[in-house]
Amino acid sequence: MTRLATSAPETFIHRFEPATAPGQAPLLLLHGTGGDENDLLPLGRTVAPGAALLSPRGRTLEAGMPRFFRRLAEGVFDEEDLRRRTHELADFVEQARVEYGLPAPIALGFSNGANIAAAMLLLRPEVLSGAVLLRAMSPFAKPPAAALTAKPVLIVSGSFDPIIPEEDAARLAATLIGAGASVDHRSLPTGHGLSQADLRLVRDWLAQRLALAS
Ligand code: MLT
Question: pLDDT grade, residue 184 (50/70/90)?
Fold first, then answer.
């Protein structure tokens, strides 16, 4: 099912796939720079079979490539835009939950999508029930205080990632732990792109956390 922006300016072009297996948290799929709403659907189906999938397209363009927020240079974020876009995306998720009748999703973000998911954990923690952050970095120079009590977060870094320095991902993990999240930070011997090992790790981690409390 594809929905196009029609009414409120906050509305995102997105794809929604309803759940085929009940009782699981939906996934909020957030693509990387240059991706779109179609990119992560196969990944979502692989790591969370039967879960509902909500996949918006980032509303910022960089040289024609969709992103979720503006950056000033690689790894240097326009934090004012990041804050505004994070609230816009969080509002969209809340509207989509009402429209599609969904519980709070677990975000599954890659690169730029992982960075806005990390920002959402810090600025609007109630919107997400957890997050998988693939190749993420710390979104804010001075992270805001947040209460993430026991929220499950998986961070997967690549030890040869030329874009995300390992200490930056470690700083993000420390921020989230400091805010009370239950963080599992793994590093794989790979680069910025995703590997089969990422898929296995994410699938196994989600298998323990997707089931909704009844
Ligand atoms: C970002 O801009 O969010 C990060 O540098 C990752 C990227 O999208 O290249």
Answer: very high
